[in-house]
Design a protein that fits this description.
alpha/beta; Rossmann fold; 7-stranded parallel β-sheet; two-stranded parallel ribbon; 9 strands
Amino acid sequence: MTASSTDPGHVLILGGTSEIALAIAAALARRGYGLILAGRDADALQREAADLEIRHGVSVTTASFDALEPATHPAFWQSLNPAPAGVVCAVGLLGDHGVARTDFNHARQLLDTNLVGCISVLDQAALAFEQRGEGFIIGISSVAGDRGRASNYYYGAAKAGFTAYLSGLRNHFASNASRVRVITVKPGFVATRMTADHDTPALLTAQPEQTARDILRALDGRRDVIYSRWYWRWIMLIIRLLPEPVFKRTRL
């Protein structure tokens, strides 16, 4: 489906019940996009869909999606009606780093959720958009992928891989002179359920609505990689530039 000038089409939002996903959904709905909220919790998806429809007057449907079941992703994509004009991948699992260090099943869950499952479903979107000649993919990665840190290197490894995947996908479409856009979003701390048990510094912690605004600005403009909040770009630049002997002495 190609959206018209008056109907921008529907956007598929994966991980559709997270606070960041819902903030993005509301921002898109205010622009007239229809929405497809996808995730595992059918009841929560229905509640959020009804709320978005009432508040914004757009079409909102739901779909069952599990990032940990990649074998189902081709059929999932084919079942979407209408076909999405864009996709936001807000799937994420912070997990418990301490548990992951002694339980590889948990470590694998972090990798499969944050990397393998995301790649699996976005491959379906990429193929469809390539055939159509247009579309957009927005992937929520993390500053945690910019450099491996002792406090979260399993999560960070998955996000580093996801960032590299999105970069390669973007390069692929650019080399084909395609109208398919790929945007990488790297939030720092965001005030969500995922970080509720962590003592995050207030000045460095964004609200989901701020991240949604940053993403919409990127979609309007030409930037391919954004940090949210913006100053995380410079924080992570400093961290990446630390020489390894110095970095090993940090406690990040």
